Amino acid sequence: GAAGLALLPAIGIFGYFLDSFSTAESRISRDRELAADREGASVATSSAIAAALVKLHAFSGVWNDLQLAAVDALKEGHYFPNMSKLFAERAAEMATPEVLDGIDTSHLSHPTDSHPSLATRLQALGLSIADVSEASLQVSPQDSAISLFENLEECEEGLSEQAQLHLANLCGIHLPDQVRE
């Protein structure tokens, strides 16, 4: 009614301030992200950080798809014994030059920050996708840090079980005591 009309100017001003704050916060978040990339490059190399960023953009969807498949399996009373192994296999299948087509315009999603596009992040590191494409498609390196772990398979299976219990809890899926595929 008429009382609501009196609030319209205040709502408009509040909306303007909220938009201004959001714009400034997004710029600060992007600047912070680029600074984090530079710090990473200071302890590794720009090309290593750039290749890791490209891999994140190229293969993060594999993990999301795997989690959805795990939820479907859990609903049927099954689970994946080793999600890490499945992820590695699926990423290796996808590691072709085509996975990099158009990826430079992609953004990683994050609950609280807005990440700059991959192209912006690579440019800030002084590189392009072409510069790191070969390294970005190497998803099964011979000299991997994973070799530092003892009992790797057992560790991955335990983590897989915990991840799927968490997914079941989030989705309200009741599981029997022993769920095995």
Give structural attributes.
single chain, 181 residues, mainly alpha, 66% helix
Largest sheet data: none
Q: How many alpha or pi helices?
A: 6
Average pLDDT, rounded to a whole number, is 86
Category from helices, strands and their pairing: mainly alpha
The coarse silhouette is flat
Helix content: 55-70%
The Cα radius of gyration reads 22 Å
Rounded to the nearest angstrom, the distance between the terminal CA atoms is 61 Å
Instruction: Work out the number of β strands.
Output: 0
Our estimate of the beta-strand percent is under 5%
Low-confidence stretches: none
How are helices and strands ordered from N to C? HHHHHH
Write a concise synopsis of the structure shown.
This protein is an all-alpha fold.
